[in-house]
Design brief:
3 helices, 32% helix, alpha+beta, single chain
């Protein structure tokens, strides 16, 4: 499994409000599945924006996961980027290319 950082914006405030609870349920399901590692909004952004940290086999699977989000299903995601990330240092090190190797001296 690889780790991906997903950034996206929600420029449609009304649509965001309508789909917020289904989106939260989607995220809760991803947490229960062990797919979602972390998620949250950028509180000071000019446009509603968020970041998700997810596990997926590859970038195609990461896109497929996001496609199931109610925000995506209703066309409420804009300017999305999906970037593979290697968490060598910190709490996600066990998911990195060097698990256990860089934790302490």
């Amino acid at each position: 499994m690889a780790v991906f950082i997903v950034h996206f914006e929600h420029p449609d405030e009304a649509g965001w409000q309508l789909q917020l609870i289904p989106h939260i349920h989607f995220l809760q399901d991803l947490l229960a599945e062990g797919v979602l590692l972390a998620s949250g909004p950028y509180p000071d952004a000019d446009v509603k924006s968020a970041m998700l940290l997810i596990k997926a086999a590859d970038e195609a699977e990461a896109h497929a996961i996001i496609a199931r989000d109610p925000f995506a299903e209703y066309g409420l995601i804009a300017n999305m980027t999906v970037t593979k990330w290697d968490p060598i240092f910190g709490v996600f090190n066990d998911l990195s290319s060097m698990p256990g190797a860089m934790q302490s001296r």
